[in-house]
Design goal:
Number of helices: 5
Low-confidence stretches: none
Structural class: alpha/beta
Radius of gyration: 16 Å
Mean pLDDT: 94
Order of helices and strands: EHEEEHEEHEHEHE
CATH topology: Rossmann fold
Helix content: 10-25%
Shape: globular
CATH architecture: 3-Layer(aba) Sandwich
Oligomer: single chain
Number of domains: 1
Strand order of the largest sheet: 3-2-1-4-5-9-8
CATH superfamily: Vaccinia Virus protein VP39
Length: 167
């Protein structure tokens, strides 16, 4: 498993799984074992069964290039979790404008000063356009309301599981 931009809250859980070969990677984070630019993943094709890429794509220059790289290094039948921030009400089409470089304007338009796009209802189709099959899972709505409240889970957030087709 490759965990891109690893979050400390997940790392200990993944590292404790006895049969999981777990690798972390990031461009800058001191938590990562490997330093890499996700636009050019330094592993051969078909290297990973799973890639966890949580809240990264809204930061990268070319998200479709990144998705293509993730597809390339996944094994056939492998899958990736590709989560991005979702701002409600959800816009129809992803909005990006690389000419916007002012941090204050980026925060205003994209939700954070280091984001370069805000995703819309077309997000799953953007993933599919790079060759993935996509399963949109809405597991939160199936949980007991007490659990949702206890863990402050976001209503309506879809988990995007991108699967590399068997070839």
């Amino acid at each position: 498993m490759l965990h891109v931009a690893p979050e400390l809250c997940y790392m200990k859980r993944f590292e404790s799984l006895p049969k999981l070969e777990y690798l972390t990677a990031d461009l800058e984070s001191p938590l990562a074992k490997i330093k890499m630019d996700i636009h050019n993943i330094p592993f051969p094709e078909n290297s990973f069964d799973i890639i966890f890429c949580n809240h990264v794509l809204e930061h990268v220059q070319d998200d479709k290039k990144v998705m293509s790289e993730i597809l390339r290094v996944l094994k056939p039948g492998g899958w990736a979790i590709l989560q991005v921030p979702i701002f409600l009400p959800l816009i129809q089409k992803t909005f990006e404008d690389p000419t916007i470089i002012d941090p204050q304007k980026r925060a205003e338009l994209f939700g954070q000063d280091d984001h370069v796009r805000v995703y819309g209802k077309d997000y799953a189709d953007r993933i599919r356009s790079t060759g993935f099959e996509v399963i949109e899972e809405d597991f939160i709505d199936g949980l007991e309301p007490d659990l949702v409240k206890k863990y402050v889970l976001p209503q309506g957030e879809i988990i995007h599981r991108a699967i590399k087709p068997n070839q």
